[in-house]
Inverse folding.
């Protein structure tokens, strides 16, 4: 299973991060290492991952906050927390956010791999394999190649068009939280970035207008919803 699993590892302890990164890669996982929560969020938005390992105590943005942000835009990706604490309250907080499991430091590397494999089996890893391609009505959207394809014709999307459509497609028929999307793509949910996002939503609507079944709805006070009924 591990050969096709991409892992985002967020760990600010340089020695442990390097050790985990090397060990998981030797086990066949594809690993990206982020040294703090801010970098982890940036990396998460840049590519598709199958699994997240988040240290709870990190500079810039802590692991709990990273998980909350990610859960706003991806309800299903498995999350495993690493913590130096064994406080019951912390574990409860992690599970409330949507963690799949928890490991308290120090832990054995083999136990970490066993937990990852167990979570992937429980979550039905197969659903993640083709997560770079989405069917939206009559369109096929390839987020890795930044292409929107219909009837054999393709149009290339800009980076932000691609990121925004990817979030909408991953949350199809569900509300995409406006603030979470702004923080994920623009890094800040201020007014000016909000206006910029509205411009990109209008561009995406124009690109998808050839299929009347597709709609990007404004959900007042919350965000947007992509439907293709």
């Amino acid at each position: 299973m591990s050969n096709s699993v991409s892992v985002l590892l967020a760990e600010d302890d340089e020695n442990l991060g390097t050790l985990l990164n090397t060990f998981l890669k030797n086990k066949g996982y594809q690993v990206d290492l982020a040294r703090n929560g801010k970098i982890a969020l940036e990396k998460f938005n840049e590519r598709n991952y199958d699994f997240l390992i988040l240290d709870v105590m990190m500079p810039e943005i802590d692991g709990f906050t990273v998980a909350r942000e990610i859960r706003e835009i991806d309800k299903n990706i498995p999350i495993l927390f690493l913590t130096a604490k064994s406080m019951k309250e912390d574990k409860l907080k992690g599970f409330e956010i949507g963690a799949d499991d928890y490991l308290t430091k120090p832990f054995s590397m083999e136990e970490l791999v066993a937990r990852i494999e167990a979570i992937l089996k429980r979550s039905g890893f197969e659903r993640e394999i083709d997560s770079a391609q989405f069917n939206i009505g009559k369109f096929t959207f390839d987020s890795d190649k930044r292409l929107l394809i219909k009837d054999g014709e393709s149009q290339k999307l800009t980076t932000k068009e691609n990121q925004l459509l990817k979030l909408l497609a991953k949350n199809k028929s569900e509300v995409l939280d406006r603030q979470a999307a702004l923080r994920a793509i623009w890094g800040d949910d201020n007014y000016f970035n909000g206006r910029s996002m509205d411009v990109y939503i209008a561009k995406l609507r124009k690109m998808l207008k050839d299929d009347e079944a597709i709609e990007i709805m404004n959900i007042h006070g919350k965000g947007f919803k992509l439907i293709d009924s």
Remarks:
- The chain has two domains: 2-128, 133-227.
- The longest strand covers residues 6-10.
- Helices lie at 14-26, 37-46, 63-73, 88-97, 109-123, 159-170, 178-185, 191-207.
- Residues 133-227 form a domain with the Arc Repressor Mutant, subunit A fold (CATH 1.10.10.10).
